[in-house]
Predict the 3D structure of the following.
Amino acid sequence: MTPLLDRLASTVGAGYVSADPEVLAGRAIDHTGRYRGQAQALVRPGTAAEVAAVLTVCRDSGACVTVQGGRTSLVAGTVPEHDDVLLSTERLTTLGEVDVAERRVTVGAGVTLAAVQRAANAAGLLFGVDLAARDSATVGGMASTNAGGLRTVRYGNMGEQILGLQVALPDGSVLARHSQVRRDNTGYDLTALLVGAEGTLGVLTELDLRLHPVPAHRVTAIAGFDDLDALVEAGRTFRDTDGIAALELLDARAAALTAEHLGVAAPVGGAWLLLIELAADLDPTERLAELLDVPGVRGEPAVGVDTLAQQRLWQVREAVADILGVSGPPLKFDVSLPLHAIASFAEDATALVAEHARDAIPVLFGHIGEGNLHLNLVRCTLTGERERTLYAAMMTLIAAHGGNVSSEHGVGSRKRDYLSMSRTDADIAAMRAVKTAFDPTGYLNPAVLFR
């Protein structure tokens, strides 16, 4: 073993350090399978003190560190580029007792979203963020990218669920911001700074999460539209409606793929589908029926009042994640757009894809209430320079429509070259100054955000 591996083994225990090439190869590839890096070691600390000690060892040894949680990043945010040490948070799985009175729970950064949801549900509460990758995504990774998801229109992004945190900083210290008050306005809001920093300023080790009451009634519907502008206009109305719980866009190409490969067919026709869910203490079914009487709806919407019917409707949306890789790794674009630009972007993006990758199938879905959309190119075989050319062209198109090149997945390493399309030079310089203040040598997550 090298001196670095010896020091890591003495810090966390030899059983939690690996330099096995096969292990490292499996950990150095991104979730989509498109992007691969190189690492020299994997270390799995079990406490915040061990995380801090690992950071100190790596910094003093001149080794770069890439932080990994559930490794569901879609922008190569956990792919090492500098023969890094991979620091996994998978052993930070402490899950505290739910405080029902204060509606909060403290959990380790390696706890999965599904585990948090189960704990909240068992206490008669709910957690405000939901993702299709709930069984593998960890709350530490979700906080690092300020993830959104299926319930953002009601509860907000991950940052709005975080009441406090613990983080191991690049200098080897541990910062704990565990405030017991619900509105903490003392000094700098370091929690807000660290959430969404994509692991560049520190390694999140523990989070205090806000929980919410469970609405007594819920109703779900899917409506079909032939015109995307009409769907977007309906989405504006639903977005501002009391009790909105979810508002999801899905195109017919995605629905056709789920029907073909999974047997999950859309219950309504139309080029575009809108999934709406209302949740309230009083039954919102009549209110939903009134709201669905909008121009552009094709035929009768499908409505789910009972739990089983609601699950069937949700399956239409959630099955999309399972079909994106049916023909190899998809090429993914996670974007944020003004609502008025969504229809024109969809048309222009389809034309752009046809120009660069004729056989690819563009699939568009996402959170229409916020304009956070996921464009996935299924059956996209482009690699190398051709892939980079298409990616750059798509980023340019997003910016031309007034959008941001990153929405809820973060910048990672995949989008760092396009950061200037969404941030001014002064903005980027300020972010670099913050990074330098926390991490003067730049050894922590060095591939993320900046080149």
In short: The mean pLDDT is 93. The first helix runs from residue 3 to 12.
